Amino acid sequence: MAQQHSTPRSPQPEWLTLTDLGRLYGISAMHCGRLLHQAGLRDGDGEPTARALQAGCAASPPARRHGQQAFWHRSNCREAFEAAGLVTVQRATLVQQWANLLSALTEGSPSISTSAAQMAEEMPTELVEPVNHQLRELGCSFQVSAAGGRNAKASPPRHRRQAGPAQSRRRRDDRGSARPDGRL
After folding, report:
1. Using N-to-C axis directions, what is the helix angle for 29-38 and 18-25, rounded to 10°?
2. Residue 155, strand partner residues
3. Nearest-5° angle of CA 110, CA 102, CA 148?
């Protein structure tokens, strides 16, 4: 029996249309094209510039017919989008999820034994700054330390006011975790 060899396929293609490239950053193809133009990678007619072609940011079919478009390299174009302050939707989702998790852990729950500081030790280092920013926007006092991320300690929450017994009971009642007998 003959073995068939197949080349491994990348889960994410590197060469994309403007539409697909824009989707990575949560923007339209038109906005994507404007950013590439501002970065000097696309000309006023929507064609890749010589600089884009030389840098490997774009590839244009040799004899383009009506409807055919240039393809843009996901990794090589990243700098243009990051310069405009954009991050991929996947990264933005990760930042939001980490911030929500750490904020919830800061509030505490009788059924969860992990602290926000312990969980922050598992966060990838490159997410520390954007997660801290998102935590501030959420009004959470917890911040991951600047050393941040994996193998780092998190700073404890600052200016955290302790709730009195009546307030704690109300919070537990609101979230449905009060004991049936009414004890704290």
Report:
1. 90
2. 143
3. 130
Count Cβ atoms within 10 A of the Cβ of residue 55 and give its class: 0-12 exposed, 13-18 middle, 19 or more buried: middle
Integer angstrom CA distances of residue 86 from 26, 46, 82, 98, 174: 9, 21, 5, 18, 38
Tokens of 95: 């930042």
> Hey, where are the domains in the chain?
15-61+69-83, 89-160
pLDDT tens profile 69-115 = 899 999 999 999 999 988 888 888 989 999 999 999 998 878 888 88
pLDDT tens string 27-39: 999 999 999 999 9
pLDDT score of 39: 95
Question: Whole-angstrom Cα distance, residue 64 to residue 66?
Answer: 7
Residue 26's region, left for phi above 0, alpha for psi from -120 to 50, else beta, is: left
94: tokens are 């990760």
